[in-house]
Write a structure and sequence with these properties.
The structure is a single chain. This protein folds into 3 domains: about 200 residues, FAD/NAD(P)-binding domain (3-Layer(bba) Sandwich), CATH 3.50.50.60; about 110 residues, FAD/NAD(P)-binding domain (3-Layer(bba) Sandwich), CATH 3.50.50; about 60 residues, no CATH class. The chain is about 30% helix and about 20% strand. It has 13 helices and 17 strands. The chain has a 7-stranded mixed β-sheet with strand order 9-15-10-11-12-13-14. A 6-stranded mixed β-sheet has the order 4-3-2-8-17-16, covered by helices on one side. It has a 4-stranded mixed β-sheet with strand order 1-7-6-5. The longest helix has 19 residues. The two termini are about 30 Å apart.
Length: about 450
């Protein structure tokens, strides 16, 4: 089938219309010329939300205050002003719409969708943005250049492609086991007093606990992770610590000691350890890139869980409910690893290898929900486009299997180690190069920079 194209203008395809892809489209629309064409490809019709902001539960809150959630780095108050301009009945769900508010995640999804809608309809950019509700299955290179193939068989001639596929799909769901905690059926048909096992004790675990409590679940909830660490809680806003000398990532142990020393100082001055962690934000990507591969692997083995719970914190009102359920004995935190699991008639017998030399514990639960976090090994994907790109050598996994390999400009590196100037990636699949690339403040800057490069190239 002949490729669809046009005369003149830059042609850019964004594969994935979750947060990263939609935000990249918005930044392209702010800069593009009338003759430029942007194809935003999403197999679902839910453009602009992605997994994180598609939840319908109003108690699933953002883990970052509204003041840090603007879509545009040059307009830091944009989201707060948008909240304050909402009709009164919509603001009622939010409460006080200020910079320190933790708003429902679905509200933030509305924000991104509304921004796209405004660009298309109010500002007349439907001539620039084309929403393609289909699955991207292949990228072809031939004498005519680059073309994108969709599942229906159509091909689009393009100058650049940006992979914004978000987190890789979770493990498959089996009888009694849900590898995807966002699966609509995950908590359906569950008796109120049924025992449940949750794998992982991070932010997704928090959301799942809230969903169970909102259903008036009274049964025992067991939560299993290697160290039993819970996300720390956001405290009153304090200014991030300004590191006088930029920290170095070349020696992980030295960096750890430096951050701990600063945290002790901020605790003594009353600013709190959070100021020390937040002060690292301008440096984190550089620190990661300065680390050798061995130091990065060491960080992942030993420090990642501690970094995650201190860096990615939860809203106070959210953690208050979880801590109350723990104190009441309904939620139990177990340190260990899941072992053999046997499916019984209507339940599962789970063997848990307890941490240290504490032996094995058996649990009988009605449901196992995997909240241990998104998968990252690209070689284990069952996703047509990514499988095609791997098989044709257009992409390769990064050395630590955190996603795919890209350079510091987000340009994809192929199987032979060559940089592809017309194929880019944005968001969680680039963690191997950037590490901190999942939070809105990091993503909005990355999208703004990538949009400028794509339209300038």
């Amino acid at each position: 089938m002949a490729a669809i194209g046009d005369q003149g203008g830059r042609r850019i395809a964004i594969i994935g219309a979750g947060f990263s892809g939609s935000l990249l489209a918005l930044h392209l629309l702010r800069r593009c010329r009338p003759e430029d064409r942007i194809y935003l490809v999403e197999r679902n019709q839910n453009f602009g939300r992605g997994l994180a902001y598609a939840t319908g539960n109003p108690n699933h809150l953002l883990n970052v205050r509204a003041g840090n959630m603007s879509a545009f780095p040059d307009e830091p108050d944009h989201f707060v002003h948008w909240l304050q301009a909402l009709p009164a009945e919509q603001r009622a769900e939010i409460g006080e719409a200020g910079a320190s508010t933790f708003v429902p995640r679905r509200v933030y999804g509305n924000y991104i969708q509304n921004l796209l809608g405004d660009r298309i309809w109010r500002e007349g950019q439907s001539r620039n943005l084309f929403l393609l509700t289909d699955e991207a299955v292949a990228l072809h290179r031939d004498a005519g250049g680059l073309s994108l193939e969709l599942a229906v068989g159509r091909r689009y001639s393009i100058d650049h492609a940006a992979l914004a596929v978000g987190n890789f799909p979770p493990t498959a769901t089996a009888s009694g086991y849900f590898g995807d905690p966002w699966n609509p059926g995950c908590l359906e048909n569950l008796a109120p007093d049924a025992p449940v096992l949750i794998l992982g004790t991070g932010l997704t675990f928090i959301d799942t606990i809230l969903s169970l409590l909102d259903r008036d679940h009274t049964g025992k909830i067991h939560a299993l992770s290697r160290r039993g660490l819970l996300p720390r809680v956001h405290a009153a806003v304090s200014a991030p610590w300004k590191y006088e000398a930029p920290p170095s990532g070349q020696n992980l142990l030295k960096l750890l000691r430096e951050v701990r020393a600063i945290a002790r100082t901020t605790e003594e001055t009353g600013a709190g350890w959070r100021a020390a962690i937040d002060g690292l934000r301008p440096h984190t990507q550089r620190l990661w890139q300065e680390m050798s591969l061995g130091e990065r692997a060491r960080f992942l083995r030993h420090l990642r869980p501690w970094w995650d719970v201190h860096r990615h914190r939860a809203a106070p009102q959210v953690m208050a409910r979880v801590e109350a359920a723990i104190a009441a004995g309904q939620v139990e935190i177990i340190k260990g690893r899941i072992g053999e699991t046997t499916r019984l008639d209507e339940a599962s017998l789970v063997h848990i290898n307890l941490r240290g030399d504490s032996g094995i514990r058996e649990l009988v639960v009605d449901r196992v929900v995997d909240c241990s976090g998104p998968r990252s090994d690209a070689t284990r994907l069952d996703q047509k486009l990514m499988r095609h790109l791997l098989e044709t050598g257009q992409v390769r996994p990064d050395p630590l299997r955190l996603g795919i390999d890209v350079d510091r400009q987000g340009q994809v590196i192929d199987a032979e180690g060559k940089v592809a100037p017309d194929l880019h990636a944005i968001g969680p699949i680039t963690k191997g190069t950037f590490w901190e690339i999942i939070a809105v403040p990091d993503l909005r800057l990355a999208c703004a920079n990538l949009a400028a490069r794509l339209l300038r190239s």
